[in-house]
Amino acid sequence: MRRIGDITRNLELQLQHRAVNFDFFSLALDESCDVCDTAQLLIFMEKLAAMQSMKGTTTGNDLFMEVNACLDTLGLKWDKLAGVTTDGCPNLTGKNVGLFKRMQDKVTEIDPEQKLVFLHCIIHQEVLC
Fold first, then answer.
1. Is 107 within 8 Å of 79 (Cβ atoms)?
2. CATH number, position 124
3. Residue 76 phi/psi, 5° resolution?
4. 116, 107 in Cβ contact below 8 A?
């Protein structure tokens, strides 16, 4: 387990060093349950950037707090976030209290002119067909 932790920390440091030079970045988010029925929030930037185990509820606010913590850990700035892709579940995309709303509010707080691009990925539905 120590070796995995060392690799994880090394990858985080590499991303932190690269993030300084980002003009913009985007995220792909997926929330699903593991075999123990624990909700997992997966955060991707080209590759898996973080996996957060969600304890208790998975409201838009809970998800926002986890994304915010992840961005802080990786040294990513909200004003450089350009877009977010998800599978479209309501707690991510809710227009009043979902994660998207909270993310747009955070970006608007920093720069009122900036609008995030939100995309809906349909791969989950295609796999089920």
1. yes
2. 3.30.420
3. -95, 135
4. yes
Tally of domains within the chain: 1
Q: Which residues pair with 81 in a beta bridge?
A: 25
Over residues 22-35, the pLDDT tens digits come to 899 999 888 877 77
Q: How far is CA 47 from CA 11, 28, 50, 62, 106, in A?
A: 11, 9, 9, 23, 24
pLDDT at 49 over 60: yes
What's this model's pTM, rounded to 2 decimal places?
A: 0.82
Q: Is 28 helix (H, G, I), strand (E, B) or coil?
A: strand
The DSSP 8-state label assigned to residue 37 in this structure reads S
Domain range for 79 is 2-128
Phi, psi torsion values for 94, nearest 5 degrees:
-50, 130
Mean pLDDT to the nearest integer, 99-116: 93
* Model confidence pLDDT, tens digit, residues 62-97: 999 999 999 998 889 999 999 998 877 776 777 777
Q: Which residues pair with 97 in a beta bridge?
A: none
Contact (CB, 8 A) for 117 and 81: no
